[in-house]
């Protein structure tokens, strides 16, 4: 799914070589930029303004900020980065490529925006997030982020005690159903042609979970929201909330030139950018943080990963600065 862009004030683009360009202005990108800016690094965040959680009414499970609207959290985060000299630029990235390193081997990159403006930078933090792909069930997508939810920790409390239907997409949906059963006693599991063995059916029965094997035709709704799940035979199972595990795919627009490796998750759950400790990648000078590599991370975990990556990037830059200074002193001797 492609969320609608949310406008925000955009800073001017610099013309000098930057210490870091952060691609993506969500929790991971802003936290990484904050760490870099507080370390007196020149940093620009390129933000398309399309956060994954834009449809949600609030961010939950984030200590000290539980329930804050996503747009407000990002607004405050942008101002915090700017307070230390970081810049936030509205736009999208068309390409990112490695350039000729410095004489000492310090990496260089060119990040080109969709409007053609190039940014020269020493380091890149990829914090592009992911795209959620919903099953192609008529009537489902229009309720995404409201009557259709995917995360029991992000939205579970808000839908507690409602009649919930789980639309199965594969083996992971069994675990999904048990988590949502903690939140309501009225849970129906629609298998949608997926396998469900006898042991799992017995476990569901023990928890009072009704299993429906009939094919699902559509999600029914009225002005007040979802009303039920219509089966292929025309029967409607009344539901107020639909829980469904999405296929989560890392956003990689504008990153092809870096040739970053990706990894597929089991059971078709999605695809992520492969990383090492603290978000390091196979490309020296490039880090990845947040949902682009940790598909299940909530806002707090994404912010923590961004902050850790930013700190490691600053340490790497400090080492490169020292190498350059030492080389210069030896040339002058």
Describe the structure.
This protein is α/β, with parallel strands linked by helices and 333 residues long. Helix content is 25%, strand content 27%. It has two domains: 18-131 and 247-332, FAD/NAD(P)-binding domain; 135-244, FAD/NAD(P)-binding domain, CATH 3.50.50.60. It contains six helices and 19 strands. Strands 1, 2, 3, 4, 5, 6 and 19 form a seven-stranded mixed beta sheet that branches. α1 links the parallel β1 and β2 (43-47). α1 (27-38) runs parallel beside α2 (70-83) and α1 runs parallel beside α6 (299-332). The radius of gyration is 23 Å and the shape is elongated. The model has no long low-confidence stretch (mean pLDDT 94).
Write the layout of secondary structure elements.
Elements: E1 18-23, H1 27-38, E2 43-47, H2 70-83, E3 87-90, E4 93-99, E5 108-113, E6 118-126, E7 130-133, E8 148-149, H3 152-155, E9 164-167, H4 172-181, E10 187-190, H5 198-206, E11 210-212, E12 216-222, E13 225-231, E14 236-238, E15 241-244, E16 247-250, E17 262-264, E18 270-273, E19 286-288, H6 299-332
Parallel strand pairs: 1-2, 1-6, 2-3, 6-19, 8-15, 9-10, 9-15, 10-11, 16-18
Antiparallel strand pairs: 4-5, 5-6, 7-16, 12-13, 13-14, 17-18
Helix pairs in contact: 1-2, 1-6
